[in-house]
Every structure is written in structure tokens, then in C-alpha cells.
Input
Amino acid sequence: MRVESAKSIILILLISFSLILTVALWYYQPDYKEVTNNETVKNTELNGEQQTMAQIIRPDKVVFSNNNGYYTYKDSYKNNEHVKQLMDQMKNFPLLDITATKSKGIPEGDRSVELLFPASLPSDVITDLFSISDSNSIVSKVDFNRIFFVYKGTANEDSSAEVVFVNDQNEKVLKGLLPKNGATSLIKDLTTNKDVLRDEFLYTPDQTNHRIYLPENQVDQVPKKLLTYNAIDVAPLQNNLLSGDKVTTIISGNQKEQRGNYKRLTYTDTWLHYVNVDSALIGTVPSMSKYQIMTKALNEINAQMGWTDTFKINGVSTSPQKVDYLMHYNGIPVLSSSKGTSTISITYSSKNGNIREYSRPLINFDSYRYSESQDATLPSGNDVVTYIKDSPQYNERLIDDIKIGYSLFPQKAGSPAYNLIPQWFVHENGKWKELDLEEQGISSSKGGE
Output
């Protein structure tokens, strides 16, 4: 009898717990909410700037050659002001007699100036970089990543220059003529102001045709920075990207996800990523050219006042229809960073031309403190090449670039600052990798630590 009573009590308790759980589940409210655009401000502008096409296209390096000697600006790792001035002057240079050509090999001349760009660019951008009297003279549907200004004989005030556009296969694709005024202005630092230049050498990785210019000597006074940051209000981007949608917000830790009509906006305190699932469907509308993609993205970011730091174009493709921008500081690219803090990327749908994906930072940076003791001294290009050749970590045949770049990472948790550290990087098999030269005993002085 006692056993039966115990069973009855247990059964009653189980039924009671079941009812309690049912009621709890019924009234449970998950951590999400639904909002409409009426609850948000209609502002769609960030706190950044607008840019022109010429401003977001900058060469990584300017190289002067003279009788097989190579030179670049001493201050190219300090403030890049000489490169900026050169590019600004180019906009006033008339480029004449533009014609198509196709031949292998690097242009030859007694003296030359070479501009090396980080991306393969469509020929349409020539109208943004030079003064062109007839834009219809530009041969479209060819790409280039270097511009050579070639001087025959002694470059003097009566010299003109042949202008040759070269692609990443070392093929000459376009050529033109730069009259003597522009040509003389362009090469004056080599002919009359050589004190602003430093020696470089040409390195071609084993079994490749890649041309990489590196410093003969160690590189002094590369700024090392401690950066503070400001939050970028996400509301204008929500208003722009989720306009008219009924939105569900899901919170998971420090990450929020907002879902609209076929749209998903994911963001934290430092980065944002947007996807339009409907736009990801395959369609049949005419695809955009590289220049159309670049122009569309530039206009959309300008409409958002979205250039919140210094960004330069780093790549553009037609399949997928995508353009990437990379943050620069003092003219040096940020090649390694915590997620989403140094790149802007836009991908367009082939179905309707709308934004399919959009990624960008939600912080912008300010310099906190600077002194000469916080400059870094980095090893020479010769030391870098020796390290790569001796290291089993690298395959020379897969290397197409080596450069000084920045690493950008937050200080310890809770600190309102980021460290911006200069170091050598190698581009191997499509990815930038930091070179740990100190591991091999190659000195690299980073003052202020």
C-alpha cells in the first residue's frame, strides 16, 4: 500500500513539473525583437568623407630607373607625400596618341619612371588619372597594373616620354605620349632632386617573371602607432540596407543579427557584414564591366559618406562582380588585422545589380601619440630575400610580391586602443603572410616598446 501511495505521489509531481514547463515554454520570450523603420532615424550617412576615383587609386610604389639602377622615395614609409604630389600632377598631364599594342617584355629606355599598382585596373581609369582630350580614344577591355614613362637618351627639359601600360603577364597593352612639360616634371626628382630617393634592387623569384623592388639597406623611421578609435553609428547603414523591411533582431553575445526580407545584417562593435539572399540568385542580366563595378561602388560609398579612414582599391573582378578596398596608414597598406577592421568589400548580384554582400569596419582610427622613439627600423630587402630562400616555409615559385605593411590588432581586452606595427610581408599563393625575421636572428628594431 505504501508503494502504491509513493507511485501516486511521484506521478502527481511529474504531472506538476510537466505543467510548469509547458507554461514556462508558452510564455518564454527569446532574446529578439521586431522593429520597423519608423523606429529608426532616417539618416543614411556615416561620419566619413567622399572620394574621387583618382583618390582611391594609388600606386604601391614609384620606381625610378637610370642605367640599370633603381630608386624610390626615402619617405615612402613615412608619409607618402611625394607619391601623392606626383599623382595629383598627373591629372594635369595631357596623354596623347593612345593606341593599343600587344607585345611581351618590359619597356626599355635609358631612364624610366614606373608606377606599380596593387590591383589589375581597367583601361577606363586612364581618364581619371590623366588629362584626356578624347575619352573615346581609350581602348577598353584591357587591364594594366603598371605604368612606365620611358625616356630615350638624357632626360632634360626638351624630353617627351613614351607611356606604356603593362599587365600582370608583362604584356604591353597600351601606349601613348607624354609631352615634354609633363615628362620633365615627372622625372625631375631623378634628374635634379636625387637626395629624396634611396637605392632599390630588383628581385625576381625563382622560375617566375614577377618584378619586386626591395630596399638595398635597412629601412629606418617607419612609424609605429598606438591608435584610438571611434565607433561608427550602425543606424545609417541599417536605414540604407534594410529600408522598408520589417526587421527581426537576434542577439548572441556581442554579435547582433538583423533579418529583413531576404536580407541579413550581422554586426559587432567593430565590423558589419550584410547579405541579400534574394540577390544571390543566379540571373541573366548583362554583367557589369570592371569600371562599372568600381564606379557603382564608389558612388554608393560616397552617398553613405562612407570613407571613414584612408582606403585604396585593392582588387576588382567581374566574376564575381566584386571590388575590395584596403586601409592605408601613411601610405602603407594594412595587410593583417583583426576581423573586419581594415577592409571594405562590395559584391553585386548578377541577377539585378543590387548589393549582394557588403562588409566594412564600424570603427575609425585616430593617432594617439607619436614620437621619434616609436619609429621602427626594418631589415633590408637583401636580408628578406636571404631569409625566404633559406626558409622551408616558402616556395619562391608561388611568391609574386613582398612589401612592408602594417599589422593592426587591439591591445588587451578592455583597452580602447589598437597597435599599428610595421613589418615585412610576403604574398604567397594568393595570401599575405607576415615574415618572422627575428626568429632567424635578423634584427628588426621597433622602438618605444
